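Write out structure tokens for GGDEF domain-containing protein.
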Amino acid sequence: MAKKDLDGSKKDLEKRLRKLAIENKQLKIALERANAIACYDSLTGVYTRRELMEHGEYFMKLLNGRYIEGNMRTVRPHMTELAVCFIDLNDLKKINNTQGHHSGDEALASFAQCIKESIRDTDVLGRYGGDEFVVLFPNQSLVDARKIVRKMRASIGRTVTGRNGIPLSASFGVASTSEGHTTLSDLMAIADGRMYRDKDRQKKGRAA
């Protein structure tokens, strides 16, 4: 093969390799974006329900000593208990109906930010659905989790949203494995029930 042909083949190969490198970089960026979409709620920036539940199951496995990778028990963080808090933004439907859905979205974003600023870096916050959020408190006692709830309630109560400055409020329910709950589903069901009882108490208080 002539030297001219070899040089041409080499240049063609280099061109193809550069193109492949660009395509691989674009694919990596696309995969990272897809992963971010799957993991984080686009409106509030907190974890999606699926990601939240995966964290919860992981914590429960650690707590119960069942986290095993392959046939080898991994070196794992020390877990003593897990507290779960259900949080519901009150009157979101009213905000949407009177101020518009844009104000409702603003309320949800502000609401999530208040929660994020009240919890630890090791805690996990996710949007469970609609106006409901859940916080997982690993290695946090029920008493301490309730203290954080009081902090969140006060922070949310100082927050206003919408063009007319609507004050926000929330309902809370907390449960802990220290109460004897051994599965994530039981823990969340108890916390959810307590949240609705808190909501009922607030409605009765306003009616009175």
